[in-house]
Write a structure and sequence with these properties.
Blueprint (H helix, E strand, L loop, with lengths): L2 E2 L1 H9 L3 H5 L2 E2 L2 H16 L5 H17 L1 E2 L7 H7 L6 H17 L1
Parallel strand pairs: 1-2, 2-3
Helix pairs in contact: 1-3, 3-4
Length: about 110
C-alpha cells in the first residue's frame, strides 16, 4: 500500500489513476491540504478552470474519505532529536519529523 500526500493525490486524480488512489492510504492532514492544491492549480498555475476546481474538489474529498486514513501516534520530536544528537536546525527537525512519522506508521 502506498502512503500519499495531497499533491500525489491530486496528480493521480488528474491522470485518472483512481484505482491507485483507492488502494492507497493518506494522513488526515490531506483533507485540509487538498483545498490548497486545488486552489494553487486554479489560481497560480492556471492548470484547471474554476468549474474544474469545483468539480475536482467534490470528487477529491469523496476519494480522500474513501482512502485508508493513517493516524500517526505522537512521538516526542525533542526526544528523538536528542537521541540522534541532532542540532536544532529546520532541516534536521524536518528529518526528525519524517522519522517520527515513519516510526509511528511502521513501528
Amino acid at each position: 500500500m502506498k502512503l500519499l500526500d495531497s499533491s500525489a493525490i491530486f496528480n493521480l486524480f488528474i491522470n485518472g489513476k483512481f484505482n491507485v488512489l483507492l488502494s492507497s492510504a493518506t494522513i488526515p492532514l490531506a483533507k485540509s491540504e487538498i483545498g490548497n492544491v486545488i486552489w494553487k492549480n486554479y489560481k497560480v498555475r492556471n492548470r484547471i478552470s474554476k468549474k474544474e476546481a469545483d468539480d475536482a474538489g467534490m470528487v477529491l474529498f469523496d476519494l480522500i474519505y474513501s482512502m485508508e486514513q493513517i493516524n500517526p501516534v505522537p512521538v516526542s520530536m525533542i526526544t528523538l532529536a536528542l537521541e540522534k544528537k541532532a542540532s536544532p536546525s529546520r532541516f534536521v527537525m524536518s528529518n526528525v519529523c519524517n522519522e517520527c512519522w515513519l516510526r509511528s506508521c511502521y513501528g
